[in-house]
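Per reviewer request, we include the raw input and output of the structure prediction for the construct analysed in the revised manuscript.
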Amino acid sequence: MTYPPQWRSEQDPANAVQLIQEYPFAHLITSHTGLHATRIPFVIDNGDKHPTRISAHLNRQNPQVEGLDGAPVLVVFSGASTYVSPHWRTDLSRAGTIDYEEVRIRGKARVIDDIDRFCGFIDRLSSLLEPQYREAGEFPIWQTNMAPEGYIERLYPNITLFVIEIDELEMVSKLHQSFPEEDRRSIAEHLSRCKRDGARSIAEKIKSQLKS
């Protein structure tokens, strides 16, 4: 038996890249010094529209740093999610559930000791995140050259920059695809009325897959 079921597997890598860019704050899971997890932001590199590597940084005091170079890691990016009530389906015999999307990346970490590459990583991360909060005010995208003199040099010894070369990428998209269209349409309509951002986001994704 295959798990997750094939209908939950998203095959288009562009959709995985989009989720990672929209939800870059992910769980880094390691086991080389015991089982640890830290939630940190990542940036992704693409080669011919296929993800090739992701980059992030950790506080050097984090126990995951010791032995990180060459260690196998798992990174989980969580997209939108929402509860779905049985009341919203035409068939009331099945229980409530959670619809969601996520991307799982497995690979080996490689530590990078280069302050210029660290600055480049922070600049890319700022360029990814700051436009998502444009409504907060009109400001230029923060870059490391805007930092006070000597600030980056004082910060850098406390930071470990690393990249993960992607060995395996899996995107799970659970949007009630196995249910009749009538049920999916009803679910999307109910979720659209919710105040939660995740509920409305899932509603739009379900609607995009319905027949017009």
